[in-house]
Amino acid sequence: MQKKKKTTFEKITMVLVWIMIVATLGSLVAGALSSLGMF
């Protein structure tokens, strides 16, 4: 593990990356469900 503290910029970047990943997975799941006619 790193002992160096993360800068504010790094924290914001990580949060945005996680939001992008979750949004991508969510849209894929929603697309799959709608194609099956369940959504």
What's the topology here?
Elements: H1 8-35
Descriptive account of the structure:
The protein is mostly helical. The protein is built from one helix and no strands. The longest helix is centred in the middle third of the chain and has 28 residues, at about 10-35. The protein is rod-shaped and about 50 Å long. The model has no long low-confidence stretch (mean pLDDT about 90). It holds the Pfam family DUF4044. Keywords: Membrane, Transmembrane, Transmembrane helix. InterPro entries: DUF4044.
Summarize the structure.
Helix content is 72%, strand content 0%. It is an all-alpha fold and 39 residues long. It is rod-shaped.
- Mean pLDDT, as a whole number? 89
Query: SSE string, helix = H, strand = E?
Result: H
What's the number of extended β-strand segments?
0
Indicate the proportion of strand residues: under 5%
Amount of helix: over 70%
Q: Please report the number of helical segments.
A: 1
InterPro entries: DUF4044
Pfam families: DUF4044
Keywords: Membrane, Transmembrane, Transmembrane helix
Organism: Secundilactobacillus folii
Considering the chains and any ligands shown, give keywords for the structure.
single chain, transmembrane helix, mainly alpha, DUF4044 domain-containing protein, 72% helix
